[in-house]
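Same chain as my last thread, 448 residues:
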Amino acid sequence: MALKGLDIFKLTPKTNCKECGNPTCMAFAMKVAQGSIEVTKCPHLSEEVLAKLAESTAPPMKTLTLKSGDTEYKLGGETVLFRHEKTFVSKTLYAFTLSDTMDDAEVKAVMDESLKVDYERIGERMYAELIFVKYTGNADRFVELARKAAEAGRGVILSCSDPATASKAVAEIADAKPVLDGANASNYEEMSKIATENGLLLGVTGENLDELYDTVEKLEALGNKNLVLNVGCNSIKTAFEAAVQIRRAAILNKDRVFGYPSLVDVAAMAPGDEAMQTALASLFTVKYGSIIVLEKMTYAESLALHGLRQNIFTDPQKPMKVEPGIYPLNKADENAPCCITVDFALTYFVVSGELERSGVPVNLLISDAGGYSVLTAWAAGKLSASSIAKFITDYDIENKIKNRNLILPGKVAVLKGELQEKLPGWNVVVGPNEAVALVKFMREFANK
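reply #2:
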């Protein structure tokens, strides 16, 4: 059971030494209870106390690490049922499917279409992180596809409940650290041995939640706590109920048997129906899929799913920001004019899109405005003539860009006069009020 702040305080040295970065031991204890600071920040706790606190303050859902090519992702670690309560921690990962029933042409078509979806949106790479390799009876083909999936540089999930075949596939791509999905009530000992010996996450499933719960308990008794819970695919209704009940058991009831990330195979729930798979993937991104498997990943699916994920897996208590700096657009160089705006992600996304659409080379300057929109930042004093001038100085803009045209957002035209005084030698230009007018404005500006 999780300890409260007062319980944690009783275990501290009560010296108020401030070495943890907090003014008092009580403040430290309260932050530990809230999960905002690690217990190890206190240098004076004994090993015994640290062990006790680490267990009691750990998230109700275990945090696991999954390898995807050269990148490592975190699964689990969730502490709330609803994002607005605090924040979701580990973003949902998406996978596309290769099956041993597919011929070479089908495999190539799925891989070509799915692997080409790879782009950046607001500083985050958008792509299918995993490849789900499905075994239906052709062992040689399954091992061949496992090898092909590993060579693609993405993470691999081996879906196989036959221990002998699973062992061959794992041996073939052991360095890729695939997820081995296929443990059940009848094979869990053999599958656990394969996963443990190779340091792999093990996917577990059951005919119903009771069977899944019992199997997880047995795996934990064997010492295996690196598990992913497959919610099943008998029907959309049962899969959804399983995903929700597993999360509620872990978060509300603090039942650590169900305190593991989940895997949802929407491709098996709606085979051949791309629109339904996208809808289901959206549902389980919100409730509560850690890994979601589709037949393939297209740009149409990606734009919907990755956009949703990027909004869901952000801290609702913090503005969504991009890094301040210089963003050259349309092959802009030091001779291209500058356009300045704030670091609110939505503003950046809209403004940069319209500037790119204009085709005019321009250096988009993003200033630190606390993640606020243009008018909110201006009203809060985060966007002013002084802050813009400071940004120009701090980022050494004058030595990096020769062009001295600076385009202001139209809604803060009031800053022009003061900014012109603070930036002698610059030509401060007031741009349009709305981003949609930037295309026409930039083309006309370039022709002056």
